[in-house]
Amino acid sequence: MLRVKASKLSYLDDVANYKGALFTGIAYFISGGVIAKVSRFNEGEEVGSYVCEFLPDAVPLISIDTDLLESEDDLEPYLYHDKAFTGLAYDFDGDKCVGEALYRDGILCYEASWYDTGQIATLEILDENLYQNVWWNKDGSYQYVKISEKNSFKLDVRFNEDRLITSVRIEGDYFSRVPFLKEKIRVRFLERRSDICNLELASYLYLAGSGVDDQFLDALETTKGFGGLKKLHVNSSELKGQRLIDLVDQNDLQELLIDDDANKLSEAAGEVKNKYPMCYIEYNRVVLA
Predict the structure, then answer these.
(1) Residue 198's CB: how many other CB atoms inside 10 A?
(2) Which pLDDT belongs to residue 225?
(3) Nearest 5 degrees, angle CA 136-CA 137-CA 141?
(4) Residues 192, 194, 198, 204, Cα dihedral to 10°
(5) In 10 A of CB 243, how many CB atoms?
(6) Closest CA to 124 of 100, 97, 149
(7) Which residues of 143-182 are buried (b: 16+ CB within 10 A; e: fewer)?
(8) How confident is the model at residue 59 (pLDDT cuts 50, 70, 90)?
(9) Helix, strand, coil % (nearest 5) of the chain?
(10) Which of 173, 164, 175 is nearest to 203 (CA)?
(11) Alpha carbon of 136 to those of 115, 143, 146, 151, 282: distances in Å?
(12) Over the stretch 178-196, which tens digit does the pLDDT of each residue have?
């Protein structure tokens, strides 16, 4: 969805056009650097006001062009008219809006950016109790998802250029907490353990954290690409030794790397090496022969 300055729209019989075509998208009405309103258009018709669905709060009291903000060496606090700014600041690149940021008392607490097509590119919500950071590709697929609740859980998932998952870190009981946070979490990603089956894995996978246990691995086996797994790196997980052995039995792994400070998987690593001598195995960075 395009996001443009309203001043760049042309009108014919009260119908909005942008670059010769009926405008569908978001338009920003600006006067003296202050955003007077933000409206949604469909086929040239203004259909209502617009507030970004990712915003963590209600519409702030004032919205301005980010060029009006002042700071010393681009550091917080950010000022507007010599006072710490509380409100929403929009970033424009030529005609198009490419970002917005929410400030409280001059401190950045939310930031989103868009590609020039209007597709969401990045989102970061800097809440010390519930941090969220997501990157998207131009086609809307994920690059990176990180969600963490203070003293509770952390989810960190990374994707490669082929949109396949290469890394999953889960600390704490993420899946038990997510249902209670639906009002606050802005990205609907892995809301339930059963959603794991919709993931697609790369041939190399890094798994880490206390939330990576046998139950998680059971769900992961239902994903597309799991059967093509060639290299697995397990770090400080809660996987049981037998479950790890079963995994290797079911897949043609070429490399298995295990970081295990608690030394819970040493016997399993040795058994895997005995059964599959051609599989390259490192246990706590020592190559098993």
Answers:
(1) 10
(2) 87
(3) 75
(4) 100
(5) 17
(6) 100
(7) bebbbbbeebbbbbbbbeeeebbbbbbbbbebbebbeeee
(8) low
(9) 15, 45, 35
(10) 164
(11) 10, 5, 12, 27, 33
(12) 999 988 999 989 999 899 9
Can you read off the two tokens belonging to residue 260?
A: 């295990």
CB distance 124 to 146 below 8 Å: no
Q: Which is nearest to 88 in space by CA: 127, 129, 47, 36?
A: 36
pLDDT 10s digits, 116-133:
999 999 999 999 999 999
Distance CA 210, CA 188 (A): 22
Helices (H), the chain: 174-177, 214-220, 241-250, 266-275
Of how many residues is the chain composed? 289
Q: Which residue in the block uniquely carries the two structure tokens 């990205």?
A: 187
Q: How far apart are CA 210 and CA 204, in angstroms?
A: 20
Q: Which residue has the tokens 């909005």?
A: 16
Separation between Cα atoms, residue 157 and residue 212, nearest integer Å: 12
Element at 132 (helix H, strand E): strand 130-136
Nearest to 138 by CA among 154, 109, 117, 156: 117
* Residue 58 predicted with pLDDT over 80: no
Strand, coil or helix: what is 24?
Answer: coil
